[in-house]
Amino acid sequence: MGSDVAKGITVRHPVVILLSVNDSPFGLYDGTSTRLLRAAMLGPMVPHRLIPNAAQLLVINVLPDDPAFPHLAVWLSSKAIHPLDPLIFCDRRDDLAALFTSNCSLQTAAVLYEQSLQTILGELPPMPDLDPRVAALMKTIAADPFAPLAALASTCGMSVAGMSHLFSRSVGISMRSYRLWQKSAIAWCGMLQGKELTAVAHSAGFTDAAHFSREWRRWYGKTPSESRNPARVQVVFR
């Protein structure tokens, strides 16, 4: 939203859905040029900068553990930024505007998320089944983001290189990025528990607090201290 949008270039793990709920165009800078858009979808790990202008900018993140993420991420891999027709959201525009102002319950927000996601999926080719080896890898990494690569490869009977290639091709981000995203969730939990940044960094597998802070700023455009401020950020784990 407006003043809370990061001012610099960020590189995020989710697929991002962007919508101006008041129809004013926002700017999206991709490192080369700025495009004026009213709705768009952004692929994971794409360097970008948002320029809200006068737009009431709603940002919806499709996280890597969402079943729809691989389909969206792979489809976007050759596009990076895909403009959307804002009219596809017209039947729930008032509800999305209420979501922008936080004037709705978390339950309503979850319903709007699913409705918006299904609307976008309806514009794309049918979602294929995920390779069962990759689905198993994702579950294993979720249970242990620190599992050695060799151990992960052995579970699917492949070499590390073959496993990594299969994962990237199927999920739309590299296994390294997926594991880092899992570690970022561990860091969020630690920060919400009020732990010191050094303890958070070590629990999430970073070498030190400085390394953790650099990666965090690259992802979110803000320091960990700014991100854990409850007056500006609310994090809910389901």
User: What level of helicity do the residues show?
Assistant: 40-55%
| Tally of individual helices | 10
How many strand units? 7
Oligomer: single chain
Radius of gyration: 18 Å
Q: Major sheet, described briefly?
A: 4 strands, antiparallel
| SSE-based structural type | alpha+beta
The proportion of strand residues reads 5-15%
Distance from first to last alpha carbon: 22 Å
Q: Tell me the strand order in the biggest sheet.
A: 6-1-4-7
Task: Give the H and E element order.
Answer: EEEEEEHEHHHHHHHHH
Give the integer mean of the pLDDT values: 89
Catalogue the unreliable spans. Answer: none
Shape: globular
Q: Which characteristics define this entry?
A:
238 residues, alpha+beta, 4-stranded antiparallel sheet, 3-stranded antiparallel sheet, 10 helices, 7 strands, globular
Explain this structure to me?
The chain has 238 residues and is of the alpha+beta class. Helices cover 44% and strands 13% of the residues. The chain has 10 helices and 7 strands. The chain has helices at residues 69-76, 93-100, 106-121, 132-143, 149-155, 160-171, 175-192, 197-203, 209-220, 224-227, and strands at 15-20, 26-29, 34-37, 39-42, 49-51, 57-62, 81-83. It has a 4-stranded antiparallel β-sheet with strand order 6-1-4-7. Strand 2 and strand 3 (34-37) form a beta hairpin. The radius of gyration is 18 Å and the shape is globular.
